[in-house]
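From the shared-data thread, chain only:
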Amino acid sequence: MQINLISVGNRMPGWVQQGYDEYAKRLPRECELVLKEITPGKRTKNSDVARIVKEEGERMLAAIPQNTHIVTLDIPGKPWTTPELAQAMQRWQESGQHVSLLIGGPEGLAESVKQLARESWSLSKLTFPHPLVRIVVAEQLYRAWSILHNHPYHR
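Structure, as tokens:
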């Protein structure tokens, strides 16, 4: 199974790339995590934010591979515990489909993206900086994998 982390944002600070890479490389090839960065729309104080979010959504949709299970990361989504994420990962693996996890920009996800999702996952009711979310997701995926494989990382 390949997990595509499709995230609005590029040109991240080195610490973000380093943190993400640390957990992504720990996952085995049969659970490969691939980051696909979506260039954010340019925002100014007079920007048409609705148009920017819509365009970001179109770029996200274009980055989603065919026949993939789509999961949005969104505050109104379902708050999973790490064991529940492990169960979701097992379900995704058993389905035989690749998975695409979608992280929106500062104003969230486009409606067109939300409508395609089969699941929505909420990391927290808190709002996190978008660069940090990709690290947290990568770490939680690795932790969930470690639960499924009785690896000592989770203990």
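The two ends are 25 Å apart (CA to CA).
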